[in-house]
Amino acid sequence: MPAEIERVFLLRGMPVPMPEGVPLRIEQGYLPPSAGDALEGRVRRITHFDGRIEHVHTVKRGSGLVREEHERPMAADEFAREWPRTEGRRIAKVRTKVRVGDRTWEIDRFDGLPVVLAECELPSVDAPLEIPAWLAPWIEREVTEEPAFRNFELARRAGLLHHP
Fold it and tell me: Which pLDDT belongs to residue 51?
């Protein structure tokens, strides 16, 4: 599987002001894990600003800065078949993508959870990451190595909140 190298930061809220970005509405659910399987599978419905909808199946392995990741597009009917299997492990968020030089920052505001995350993918583990001036005052701390802030864990916690 290809590697995803990503740093993640917990924010105090949505940065204001923030440069104009590309907003996306994302609904994602996590598939039940197989016994003894270290893979994390998710299905995602992404609604673009222009109304276009895409569906994506992603499999990840690992935690922290470097994770293995494989993504593939999926048909709407395949998504509809898989979505019910994610019951209790779902989150929804608005993601705003902001291009800064040769990097793209993704700011995620989660529905129903008091969490805002900023993440940036890197080309290599040792690649420098400059925090933009508009983002720096909003950073509470880096959470790249904290599993509690992985989307999978946020989805699990959201499921517990909505399904006692």
Answer: 94
In contact, 27 and 111? CB cutoff 8 Å: no
Does 1.20.1250.20 match the CATH number of domain 3-162?
Answer: no
Sequence-separated (6 or more) residues with CB below 8 Å from residue 80: none
Contact 95, 23 (CB under 8 A): yes
Domain ranges of the chain: 3-162
Over residues 17-58, the pLDDT tens digits come to 889 998 999 999 999 877 666 678 999 999 999 999 999 999
The per-residue b/e assignment along 2-39, b for 16 or more CB within 10 angstroms, e otherwise, is: eebbbbbbbbeeebeeeeebeebebbbbbbeeeeeeee
